[in-house]
Predict the 3D structure of the following.
Amino acid sequence: MFPAVKDGDLLIAYRLQGSYIKNDLVVYTVNGERKIGRIAGRETDVIMMDDSGTFTVNGTEQSGEILYPTYAKEGLTYPYEIPEQSVFILCDYRTEGTDSRNFGAVPMSAVEGKVITLLRRRGL
């Protein structure tokens, strides 16, 4: 999740979150591994990525504060419709990270909580 989260940071997540919105930073588990990512799309949204690094949700280009282009990876076919009760999660360091582009949408049951606090612990 570089640059938002760096090695040594301590995250506090709220587990009782009822629903999640786009751009929420969440903790989730996939293939038995706990990960951190940003919700890029919710159920029934249509995700599109192209060779230029452009990322769209429901036909609207998404860029925000992300400095890195969003390229598609092997395994998913675009346009990709997010299944019900699932979210599409991307990491901020999109050229190097492992996220929904690798393993598809994440079921809501795998989302453990929303990150509400980040504490920088380096140098202590």
